[in-house]
Amino acid sequence: xxxxxxxxxxxxxxxxxxxxxxxxxxxxxxxxxxxxxxxxxxxxxxxxxxxxxxxxxxxxxxxxxxxxxxxxxxxxxxxxxxxxxxxxxxxxxxxxxxxxxxxxxxxxxxxxxxxxxxxxxxxxxxxxxxxxxxxxxxxxxxxx
Amino acid sequence: xxxxxxxxxxxxxxxxxxxxxxxxxxxxxxxxxxxxxxxxxxxxxxxxxxxxxxxxxxxxxxxxxxxxxxxxxxxxxxxxxxxxxxxxxxxxxxxxxxxxxxxxxxxxxxxxxxxxxxxxxxxxxxxxxxxxxxxxxxxxxxxxxxxxxxxxx
Lengths: 144, 153
Description:
The structure holds 2 protein chains of 2 kinds.
Chain A: E1 3-4, H1 8-32, H2 38-47, H3 52-71, H4 85-101, H5 108-115, H6 119-137
Helix pairs in contact in A: 2-3, 5-6
Chain B: H1 4-24, H2 29-36, E1 41-42, H3 47-67, H4 86-102, H5 106-115, H6 118-138
Helix pairs in contact in B: 5-6
């Protein structure tokens, strides 16, 4: 039975964050000529590491929680503090393998691909979102 | 010519991306799972993240499709593949299982891992292993075209 949990401030923060992410994708596209897909950027940096543009993007991304903490406290990842380690590692492997086989993740397909009207990305988004919803509906999780 | 402008843009983009993820709630795996939980206690707020991001990115992609260059005039390659195949669907389905199980997709995983969460660092290590394995054995890619090389040599 579905119950909807909704708070307007929450949604407003999500919208504001989304606009920042879209601005980031625009800046990386028109300023650096790259697609802001994190799985692609991370995979490329790990496998060759030769593209300085992607490496700089990643380093800046990794710095953000620490810069945020200069302004206010930030505690992340608490929901996964006591995971089932095997399931957690399995989930990480699936995300790694799946995003490389499928050429993208939530950002590459979900933001850039959809903003570029790509049919491949639409299929990808419907697939990963649908499968993720089914996974949750069936009660599977790395902490349960 | 200017090799530094693309790097400065990339640094700015990385910062905007990370702050956007933190502000939006995407870095809270419990919230992500609540967004995915459409048959239980469904919290639809995160739909606004993707909606807002697409909205903000539309003009830039329209410009890029039309001009095929960056603002500085350097060539830009847009993904233009149209093939929907088993690899796309299978790969994204595997990703969906991992995302649903953990509430973590690659961007938030990197940010939360960097913030110092040990379990998420373990997740990121597994994700890195998975992507290297699949790049090496399952889906080798052709060496990247000059897109990644200095363009104005």
